[in-house]
Specification:
By secondary structure, this protein is of the alpha+beta class. It has helices at residues 2-6, 14-41, 46-72, 77-86, 88-111, 183-195, 237-255, and strands spanning 119-122, 125-132, 136-141, 146-150, 160-161, 169-178, 207-214, 221-231. Strand 7 (207-214) and strand 8 (221-231) form a beta hairpin.
Length: 262
């Protein structure tokens, strides 16, 4: 049966098929690099360029695969019967996970629970979505580790998206002060320190909450100061957090407000 299948392969077209593969590979590299450069130049459209890159990669790869198959294999009723009879079952078992991930990837692109460039948390990992590929979603964590997750898992497990396609992203900062401290001053300090950061997105409101809590592992009460504010670009989430914490703690010391050990 394998020999019969080879009879329908046009070996003279293999150089053409290789050329199609090479053009597809070069095109993907060129488009990816071009759109990445545009994202650097036009930062307000960075996520849009990343999404276009991901979708274009899908189209080019699927189109190249179809061209290669159409050029190398002489399709006829005999070919379809031969391939369907001898290969379908084997391919089904061998590639069922790959096909499931491929279909899941298409669903992710169409349903858009998250997009390339979003900050997501999945399976205990948190970071930026670098790529929605044919088989996996690649996430770059805050520790600069590259995590690859099969596309199909995103259809069954819960995923949290921090910015949902927008550049700006909410960040939450928590501070603990003693119950005998001036919480009005602490609240004002937290607000001013956040509003004066170079990374804050001032078109969205800055919210400061106060709440009495019990310190972890300690039978002591404390006042928790929670700040909710937006960073203008999710890539600067860590820098924003560092800047706000430095400003708040410096101001607490200057005002004589003692922090409670959490």
């Amino acid at each position: 049966m394998d020999t019969q299948i080879l009879e329908f392969v046009d070996f003279s077209r293999i150089p053409y098929a290789l050329a199609v593969i090479a053009v597809a590979w070069v095109s993907n590299r060129f488009i990816t690099r071009t759109l990445d450069d545009l994202g650097v130049r036009f930062t307000e459209r960075r996520l849009l360029f990343k999404q276009i890159t991901s979708f274009t990669r899908f189209v080019i790869l699927i189109g190249a695969a179809a061209l290669v198959a159409a050029s190398v294999v002489r399709f006829s009723s005999e070919v379809l019967l031969a391939i369907g009879g001898s290969v379908a079952v084997a391919v089904g078992f061998a590639f069922k996970d790959l096909l499931a991930s491929l279909m899941a990837g298409l669903i992710l692109l169409l349903d858009r629970p998250f997009q390339v460039g979003d900050r997501v948390e999945f399976g205990g990992h948190y970071g930026e979505v670098l790529e929605i590929g044919l088989r996996t979603v690649r996430i770059n964590t805050l520790d600069d580790n590259l995590i690859s997750v099969p596309n199909s898992r995103f259809l069954t497990d819960a995923v949290s998206c921090a910015n949902a396609g927008a550049l700006e992203q909410m960040c939450v900062f928590e501070f603990w002060i003693g119950m005998d401290q001036d919480f009005d001053v602490a609240k004002e300090i937290a607000y001013d320190a956040t509003a004066s950061s170079n990374f804050v997105y001032l078109k969205r409101a800055i919210i400061v909450h106060l709440k009495e809590v019990t310190l972890p592992h300690q039978p002591l009460m404390a006042m928790k100061v929670t700040v909710k504010a937006y960073v203008f670009d999710g890539r600067f989430e860590s820098a924003f957090g560092t800047d706000v914490h430095e400003r708040v703690h410096r101001a607490f010391r200057a005002a004589g407000i003692a922090s409670a050990a959490a």
